[in-house]
From TrEMBL:
Protein name per the record: Alanine--tRNA ligase
Section covered of the full-length record: 1 to 474 of 874
Catalytic activity: tRNA(Ala) + L-alanine + ATP = L-alanyl-tRNA(Ala) + AMP + diphosphate
Natural source organism: Rheinheimera aquimaris
Cofactor requirement: Zn(2+)
Cofactor binding, per record: Binds 1 zinc ion per subunit.
Function description: Catalyzes the attachment of alanine to tRNA(Ala) in a two-step reaction: alanine is first activated by ATP to form Ala-AMP and then transferred to the acceptor end of tRNA(Ala). Also edits incorrectly charged Ser-tRNA(Ala) and Gly-tRNA(Ala) via its editing domain.
Chain's gene name: alaS
Domain named Alanyl-transfer RNA synthetases family profile: residues: 3-474
Length: 474
């Protein structure tokens, strides 16, 4: 079956509405109820208090298509973009939720019905995992759904640490937690990779599409696991990953939305090879950058704003590599609006503002980018060994506004690494100097208390006419 991304989103919401789920709109990328979280990174974020029983709603079943960003904090897929077929910094998570209502049996049956009846995936290409000790879920898959035992894999704890597993979810060190069951799709033997749990699982042959979490226990500080009186369900399926399957392509970057964005990026940069990895990076980054701005984030030197700035700069560097002359990134907003403006009217409404902010940011970085790149190239030409010296990484950062991840991205393209320890030492040195300077009045080393109140600390200094703050995640 071939379905557009928009029609898959619609089909998912409609299916769960037909199962008495309330359709709840996507919430902002800026979590309203969780000061510890950088960005909304899953559908359950807006329901956290409902799961905890602290927020009562008129419904106990919900369904949503949630915009998510994973580009910092605990879930960071920034480094995966351009390297895997399945990761984005921005993606949409389709999810159904039970707040103390249905549990394992229905959650599994609904997922299976959606995949094999509604969108008609071939059953023999689906694999499932369960948490090692979750016999209940295992038996539902085997005996009720009829998945053959060879395609049900039990996943245990990593390195023996209790409950540290891809198949065990926890809201935090204490509180709601429980086993997961995940559904994978086999894209075929022409693609490298092995089934989950195998040594080749990191390949892109078996792609995880749906994670179903059973919130079953309440974990106490002393490690005691108590059964929750009303267990709940939280699920998430990546829209782009299911779209790839239904559009008969392997990579998320080949689906309708991305084909359009990649085409726009090629036009804006003058690139001619549509399979260029940098086009994928740019197409990915315009989505996270535009939606972050829509949700109120502005490029800045701290917290969320600095994450946004880093993503923009990374996109600009890839655009430069593709041959862009002058600002190009902001030109992709129109193509994004054409793809996603209907599902997200707030994006269409703010198009002009998003373009303006991106253009300014791009132009500002453009001033130092070329010079920084020239210095980097020179250093690369004379490099002994395979590691970029920390001092060089620091100089690029300090003088030319190259975020460390950007330099690392360049290094990685040439199979080089960066000397992170050396960079940290140069940074500490700088901080010490700034501290001494502050004795003369200016307060350069004040801890950055960012608006999101996570434990960011940082320090500020100047390069060109811009202030830079490095953020240290603690
Ligand atoms: P993976 O193991 O592939 O990194 P995950 O286990 O980190 O995925 P979950 O946290 O379980 O992902 O999120 C639920 C679903 O959201 C995934 O099964 C996948 O379909 C989708 N998803 C997660 N991260 C991304 C991403 N960076 N880009 C696109 N889709 C994603
Ligand atoms: Mg992941
Ligand atoms: Mg996973
Ligand atoms: Mg998962």
């Amino acid at each position: 079956m071939t379905m557009t991304s928009a029609s898959i989103r619609r089909a998912f919401l409609d299916f769960f509405a037909s199962k008495q789920h309330q359709i709840v709109p996507s919430s902002s990328l800026i979590p309203g109820n969780d000061a510890t979280l950088l960005f909304t990174n899953a559908g359950m974020v807006q329901f956290k208090d409902v799961f905890l029983g602290q927020d009562l709603r008129s419904y106990n079943r919900a369904v949503s298509a949630q915009r998510c960003v994973r580009a910092g904090g605990k879930h960071n897929d920034l480094e995966n973009v351009g390297y895997t077929a399945r990761h984005h910094t921005f993606f949409e998570m389709l999810g159904n939720f039970s707040f103390g209502d249905y549990f394992k049996r229905d959650a599994i049956a609904y997922a299976w019905e959606f995949l094999t009846v509604v969108v008609k995936l071939p059953k023999e290409k689906l694999w499932v995992t369960v948490y090692e000790t979750d016999d209940e879920a295992y038996d539902i898959w085997l005996k009720e759904v009829g998945v053959p035992a060879e395609r049900i894999i039990r996943i245990g704890d990593n390195k023996g640490a209790p409950y540290a597993s891809d198949n065990f979810w926890a809201m935090g060190d204490t509180g709601p937690c429980g086993p997961c069951t995940e559904i994978f799709y086999d894209h075929g033997e022409h693609i490298w990779g092995g089934p989950p749990g195998s040594p080749e699982e990191d390949g892109d042959r078996y792609i995880e599409i749906w994670n179903i979490v059973f919130m079953q226990f309440n974990r106490h500080a002393d490690g005691r696991m108590e059964n929750l009186p009303k267990p709940s369900v939280d699920t998430g399926m990546g829209l782009e990953r299911i779209a790839a399957i239904l559009q008969h392509v392997h990579s998320n970057y080949e689906i309708d939305t991305f084909v359009a964005l990649i085409k726009a990026a090629a036009e804006a940069t003058g690139a001619t090879d549509l399979s260029d990895k940098s086009l994928r990076v740019v197409a990915d980054h315009i989505r996270s950058c535009a939606f972050l701005i829509v949700d109120g984030v502005q490029p800045s030197n701290e917290g969320r704003g600095y994450v946004l700035r880093r993503i923009v700069r990374r996109a600009v560097r890839h655009g430069n590599k593709l041959g862009a002359k002058g600002a190009f990134f902001y030109k992709l907003v129109a193509a994004l609006v054409a793809q996603m403006g209907e599902a997200y009217p707030e994006l269409a409404e703010k198009q002009a503002v998003v373009e303006k902010i991106l253009k300014l940011e791009e132009e500002q970085f453009g001033k130092t980018l070329e010079r920084g790149l020239a210095i980097l190239e020179e250093a690369l030409a004379g490099l002994q060994g395979t590691e970029l010296p920390g001092e060089l990484v620091f100089k690029l950062y300090d003088t030319y506004g190259f975020p460390v991840d950007l330099t690392n991205d360049v290094a990685r393209e040439r199979n080089l690494t960066i000397d992170q320890a050396g960079f940290d030492a140069a940074m500490a040195e700088q901080r010490k100097r700034a501290q001494q300077a502050s004795n003369f009045g200016a307060d350069y080393n004040a801890a950055v208390t960012s608006s999101q109140q996570t434990t960011f600390t940082g320090y500020e200094h100047e390069f060109g006419n811009a202030q830079v703050v490095e953020i240290l995640f603690e």
